[in-house]
Amino acid sequence: MRKIIQIVAATAVLASAGIAADYVLKFSHVVSPNTPKGKAANFFEKRLEELSGGQIDVQIYPSKQLYNDKAVLKAIKLDSVQMGAPSFSKFGRIVPQLALFDLPFLFRDIDHLHRVQDGVVGEKLKAMVNKKGFVALNFWDNHFKQLSSSKKALIAPSDAKGQKFRIMSSKVLEAQFQAVGANPQMMPFSEVYSGLQQGVIDGQENTFSNIYTKKFYEVQTDLTVTNHGYLGYLVILSKKFWNSLTPELQKNVVQAMNDATVKEREYAQELNDSQFALIKEYADKTGKLKIHTLSPAQVQAWRDAVSPIYSKFYDKKKIGKDLIEATINTK
Q1: Which CATH number fits domain 146-229+272-329: 3.40.50.880, 1.20.200.10, 3.30.70.20, 3.40.190.170?
Q2: Which pLDDT tens digit goes with each residue over 157-196?
Q3: What's the pTM?
Q4: Closest among 98, 77, 91 to 230, alpha carbons compared
Q5: How is the chain split into domains, by residue range?
Q6: How far apart are CA 298 and CA 159, in angstroms?
Q7: Residue 5 DSSP class
């Protein structure tokens, strides 16, 4: 009882000293707290509350408690919630240029990707999002995508010919598979496992974490480490909320987000590595899955096969030649 009285008294002292939060920042996302995005959101909460001296109270709502990724865009615009981290595909209609990240074999490695996101190209993309009534903060990782199939190993681009691959709604992904003679099939993510199991589709592309958590590896015979495309998120903030902050608090938000981004990328890499190890363990134990890693020459053969589609998206209303070339030229 005495301890409770002390806590209440301490709270009263803080309130009387004016330390109670002046702002509430609700951060809505769709994944569980133990994912890279979820853990980074929790890190951001603690960091911003620390930097702001408690002036900003960050409240995290994971697992679609408030909104799904599509609905959160409208909610942020209305300031019903202040922050979200939707996947790039959810911006398709308002900023189609984010489909840059769908272009196959555009990024040499994860470091090149991050230099693009944190550099001139990333700033241009965020400016486009800002023009649509948001404040774009930072890019967060899911990770690179890999290819799998139940028909045959995907070593050369010609191996994909005639195979049916599931894609999410994306003109880039449609063109990517058509370039190697494959048949892209648009399908909801929730139906991919059954689609593979029943032979409605032959293969799919996803990150190791998605392949592992959704058990796609159980219904495929071959998995090829291609790192050909990328899945990620853009953290956005309510413009109304941003404009209500003092310049000092705005700096706190930026700093907390930068710190959280470093952590999120670490979390994503750790998860990618650990879940790939679990898939390899399954492959070794059961013999039901073969894992293939492409040589540099084989990667180049795929790049040569699919890179001609880049020019189809040179139109500024699609992606833009300047963004594509600036990405390729980022050192």
Answers
A1: 3.40.190.170
A2: 999 999 999 999 899 999 999 999 999 999 999 999 999 9
A3: 0.91
A4: 98
A5: 2-141+232-270, 146-229+272-329
A6: 12
A7: H
